């Protein structure tokens, strides 16, 4: 039997587009199938054919539901993949709302581009549509944590990763080798999702490095959030929060509910202008096994916001004059309803646009945080005169010191570490840290690179 190999089809040398192919004598397993996000040349990769025919894949395993890990699945299915898509129950629940929403946004953007003529493509097309998303949902197979199952001739076990609801590491055992895919690793102290499982023995660890060169600000995110809200309300403005529907919004609502309960922020309305985020928040109640909140805390989180359900509700928010907190997708301001709020309010210095974590290179969020004074929205340039701020400490990613602590706690070191899901600088910094402090063998594979899994 030949040794299994890994082929890095995404998230190698960049942060998004997670896809790793495990090939062995018995089959082909794809771990994660995410979309590339950020600057244009990365987004264009989503339109390229995979080097492997989707119909030749035997199984897909998802570590979690974020679009950069799961959003390519409808494309796989449209292009001929007919096999199972394994995920935890909570991850499957989130994918069932994320995939149709992503399809709807793409169709909507393509229609707008065609109507206004600002796309070079004639006609502009969506990457996938709602029918593709619904077809993919039928292939989801739910697997609880710590329950081994067979996939493409390998034995796979999903283990708790923290990070977001249902997030997992994937331990793949095949050909006498053990490979652990970390997915996105959560933080060691997390009031919502608990700490990641202990690193098991493995011949090879594929480890994310999103925060491989950064440390989280030690400031209490609740106190920082309270200060932003108070100073914005004092000048009569809105706090506009571009937020990821899954994970970040629930974390933000948790902190806002706690602040409201102890009267640490003004009693202004909190609007959630994202039907998707509302659905994702309510999934908390459906999966108590996947988070650490009490039933009362879940009720506080779910009941706090006023939901803007329709496009008309969203338009009316732009007409508000009294201060409010408005949370809307998308988290990097690349699309969604928050873009309409930016067009309306970014030129007004009374308001604050508050980002809640990492912004991929080239996104509107990245450009605003770098201080650009105008942003392009729907073909027009909009001045940025509002306050722009960020809460780093709401991130659900472990930083490099937290990841290092997780590695140091492993009973048995892995034989080799391959770093993915990070910028080149982040991955290289973290490679150096691991080599210098732990003495482990570490490499940073490039896109398309094939690596044979050697015994530890």
Sheet bearing the most strands, described?
7 strands, mixed
CATH topology of the largest domain: the name is Metallo-beta-lactamase, Chain A
Q: State the fourth-level CATH superfamily of the largest domain.
A: Ribonuclease Z/Hydroxyacylglutathione hydrolase-like
How many domains comprise the coordinates? 2
Q: Quick check: average pLDDT?
A: 94
Question: Layout of SSEs?
Answer:
Layout: E1 5-10, E2 19-24, E3 27-31, H1 40-43, E4 59-61, H2 67-70, H3 73-78, E5 85-87, H4 89-116, H5 130-137, E6 140-142, E7 149-151, E8 154-160, E9 168-174, E10 177-181, E11 204-208, H6 221-234, E12 239-242, H7 248-261, E13 270-273, H8 275-286, H9 295-303, E14 306-307, H10 311-317, E15 325-328, H11 338-345, E16 352-355, H12 364-369, E17 374-377, E18 380-383, E19 387-390, H13 400-408, E20 416-420, H14 424-438, E21 442-443, E22 450-452
Parallel strand pairs: 3-4, 4-5, 5-6, 10-11, 11-20, 12-15, 12-16, 13-14, 13-15, 16-19, 20-21
Antiparallel strand pairs: 1-2, 1-22, 2-3, 7-8, 8-9, 9-10, 17-18
Question: What would your notes on this structure say?
Answer:
The protein has 456 residues and is α/β, with parallel strands linked by helices. The two termini are 17 Å apart. The strands form four sheets. The chain has a seven-stranded mixed sheet with strand order 6-5-4-3-2-1-22. Strands 7-8-9-10-11-20-21 form a seven-stranded mixed sheet, with helices on one face. It has helices at 40-43, 67-70, 73-78, 89-116, 130-137, 221-234, 248-261, 275-286, 295-303, 311-317, 338-345, 364-369, 400-408, 424-438, and strands at residues 5-10, 19-24, 27-31, 59-61, 85-87, 140-142, 149-151, 154-160, 168-174, 177-181, 204-208, 239-242, 270-273, 306-307, 325-328, 352-355, 374-377, 380-383, 387-390, 416-420, 442-443, 450-452. It folds into two domains: 5-214 and 396-452, 4-Layer Sandwich (Metallo-beta-lactamase, Chain A), CATH 3.60.15.10; 221-394, Rossmann fold (3-Layer(aba) Sandwich), CATH 3.40.50.10890.
């Amino acid at each position: 039997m030949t040794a299994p190999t890994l082929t890095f089809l995404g998230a190698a040398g960049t942060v998004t587009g997670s896809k790793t192919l495990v090939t062995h004598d018995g089959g082909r397993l794809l771990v994660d199938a995410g979309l590339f996000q950020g600057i244009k040349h990365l987004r264009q990769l989503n339109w390229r054919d995979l080097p492997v025919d989707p119909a030749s894949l035997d199984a897909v395993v998802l570590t979690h539901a974020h679009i950069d890990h799961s959003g390519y699945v409808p494309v796989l299915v449209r292009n001929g993949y007919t096999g199972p898509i394994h995920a935890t129950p909570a991850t499957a629940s989130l994918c069932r709302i994320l995939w149709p929403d992503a399809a709807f946004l793409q169709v909507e953007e393509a229609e707008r581009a065609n109507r206004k003529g600002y796309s070079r493509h004639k006609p502009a097309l969506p990457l996938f549509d709602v029918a593709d998303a619904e077809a993919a949902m039928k292939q989801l197979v739910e697997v609880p944590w710590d329950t081994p199952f067979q996939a493409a001739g390998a034995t796979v076990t999903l283990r708790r990763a923290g990070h977001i609801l249902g997030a997992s590491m994937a331990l793949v055992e095949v050909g006498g080798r053990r490979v652990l895919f970390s997915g996105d690793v959560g933080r060691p102290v997390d009031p919502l999702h608990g700490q990641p499982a202990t690193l098991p023995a493995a011949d090879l660890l594929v480890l994310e490095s999103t925060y491989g060169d950064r440390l989280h600000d030690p400031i209490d995110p609740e106190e920082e959030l309270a200060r932003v809200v108070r100073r914005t309300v004092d000048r009569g403005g809105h706090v506009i929060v571009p937020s990821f529907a899954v994970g970040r919004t629930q974390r933000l609502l948790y902190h806002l509910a706690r602040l409201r309960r102890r009267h640490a922020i003004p009693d202004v309305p909190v609007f959630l202008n994202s039907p998707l985020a509302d659905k994702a928040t309510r999934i908390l109640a459906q999966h108590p096994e996947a988070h650490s909140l009490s039933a009362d805390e879940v009720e506080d989180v779910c009941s706090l916001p006023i939901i803007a359900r329709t496009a008309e509700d969203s338009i009316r928010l732009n007409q508000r004059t009294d201060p409010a907190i408005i949370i809307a997708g998308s988290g990097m301001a690349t699309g969604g309803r928050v873009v309409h709020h930016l067009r309306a309010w970014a030129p007004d210095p009374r308001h604050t646009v508050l980002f809640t974590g990492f912004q991929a290179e080239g996104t509107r969020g990245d450009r605003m945080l770098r201080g650009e004074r105008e942003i392009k929205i729907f073909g027009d340039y909009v001045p940025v005169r509002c306050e722009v701020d960020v809460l780093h400490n709401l991130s659900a990613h472990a930083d490099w010191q937290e990841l290092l602590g997780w590695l140091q706690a492993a009973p048995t070191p892995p034989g080799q570490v391959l770093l993915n899901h990070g910028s080149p600088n982040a991955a290289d910094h973290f490679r150096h840290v691991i080599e210098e402090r732990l003495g482990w063998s570490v490499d940073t594979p490039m896109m398309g690179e094939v690596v044979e899994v050697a015994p530890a």
